[in-house]
Amino acid sequence: MADDVMSRVIRVIAETQRVPLDTIKPESTFEELKIDSLDGINIVFAIENEFNVNVPDEAAKSLRSVRDVAEGVEKLVAGG
Amino acid sequence: MGVVSTFGCGVTPFWEAISSGRSGIRPIEGLAPLRFPNGAQVGGYIASEHFDEKRLMLLDRFAQYALVAAREAMRQAGAPAIDAVITGCSAGGQDAMDAGFVELYRNNSPRVNPLMVPRVMSSGAASHMAMEFDIEGPVYSVSTACSSANHAIGQAFTMVRSGICKSALTGGCESVFSYGFLKAWEAMRVVSPDTCRPFSRNRRGLILGEGAGMLVIENYDIARARGAEILAEIVGFGMSSDAHHITQPTADGPARAMRAAIADANIQKVHYINAHGTGTLANDARETEAIRSIFSGNVLVSSTKSMHGHALGAAGALEAVATVMALRKQLLPPTANYTEKDPECAMDVIPNEPREAEIEYALSNSFAFGGLNAVLAFRR
């Protein structure tokens, strides 16, 4: 995974959740970060804007961790 | 009673459709791109058949639907004297707001239409109803998102029961098919990409609907004395708040509202529940949990949203009409589009086919984003 994608994902999540950058690690789960379903769709919205991609509903709902988000972004950016 | 819905104007086409399990969900006309192609838009409606051009300038669609439904309800009730109007509406005049902001932001117009404010205000429908039927007592609108109409009808019921007024025109009205508003729902990711399958394991979300339902409610003795045809009795009203989350529902809040309605009605048995049943994963599982915590599985439940869509602030009113008709006809409208049992929704949800049943008491559930629950109890 490109470091660049992961670091941008972490920054977007930190900004959206209004928490310090260093509280979010690549291996963090949404549960650990207390990200609920509404936070989740808000993060996906910010990710769509950051990477200029469209995230389908079912993919958006399946995200459980920071790594899920970064991997999902890589797939979408690669046109997958 | 009066209705405007995806099935057109009138209680008759509404009841004929839902009591035969026919869904009014179809492709949304003229509003794209959207991730969800389908909705339950009011069909076959021509505004000029109901209002002259001058009056239409003041009426956004939700208020037109309210007036058309109110006229039918008043006609059917024999045009009694009405003391109060209490309507539910969540979104107000989205058409006027959308059009005004397109002019302002996209077309760089230096001004917006001066009728935007009176068209947008969600209490406008109640005011127009008061003016049309000359109702000079308490007139107001309740806005509690998707439970607006049940809160409104419940308020009207408690006011009539307490003697604050003798009669009321009450219900809900909503018009959701404006592009900006639909995009907001798309962003919430709760709208199904195909259809609404309440309580079915493969459900994928709600389908937006619109319209209005209006009911004339009257003090029982006065209604009898004037020889009115009494369609049904409202016997109880229960409210609660989840006090939990702005979008995620609980089971406890809805259960408390149902218990409160049953206690208020002082009844021992409920035969049928017209569920909130939106078709979202969360609502249907939590609502089932709530119902089962009270009824241990021996109550018949259906979601008519599978056919008329989720009409937000009008939902409870359409469902009140459905519940009253079910009591009158002893025929339960089904949960349409049901294809797969879900262990999380283990109830008899009357899948796909209507069912004849002897029923005397029924509940109609409405729950809202933000955990605002309102349940009406009806008697045949």
Structural summary, described in words:
The complex is a heterodimer of chains A (80) and B (380). With 80 residues, chain A is mainly α. Chain A is 60% helix and 0% strand. Chain A is built from 4 helices and no strands. In chain A, 21% of the residues are buried. The model of chain B has no long low-confidence stretch (mean pLDDT 97). In chain B, a hairpin with a 3-residue loop joins β14 and β15 (372-379). At the A-B interface, α2 and α3 of A face loops of B.
Write the layout of secondary structure elements.
The complex is a heterodimer of chains A (about 80) and B (about 375).
Chain A: H1 3-17, H2 37-51, H3 57-62, H4 66-77
Helix pairs in contact in A: 1-2, 1-4
Chain B: E1 2-5, E2 8-9, H1 11-18, E3 26-27, E4 38-39, H2 53-56, H3 61-77, E5 84-88, H4 94-106, H5 116-120, H6 124-133, E6 139-142, H7 148-162, E7 167-174, H8 179-188, E8 211-218, H9 220-225, E9 233-241, H10 252-265, E10 272-274, H11 281-295, E11 300-302, H12 305-308, H13 315-329, E12 331-332, E13 355-356, E14 361-368, E15 372-379
Parallel strand pairs in B: 5-6, 5-7, 10-11, 10-14
Antiparallel strand pairs in B: 1-2, 1-8, 3-4, 7-8, 9-15, 12-13, 14-15
Helix pairs in contact in B: 3-6, 7-13, 10-11
Overall 3D shape of chain B:
globular
Alpha-beta classification of chain B:
alpha/beta
CATH top level label of chain B: Alpha Beta
* N/C terminus separation of chain A: 15 Å
Annotation field: number of helices of chain A: 4
- How many structurally independent domains of chain B? 1
- The percent range for strand residues of chain A is under 5%
Determine the CATH topology of chain B. Answer: Peroxisomal Thiolase, Chain A, domain 1
Please, what is the CATH homologous superfamily of chain B?
Thiolase/Chalcone synthase
- Summing up helix and strand content along with how strands pair, one would put the structural category of chain A as mainly alpha
**Contiguous runs where pLDDT drops below 50 for at least 5 residues of chain B:** none
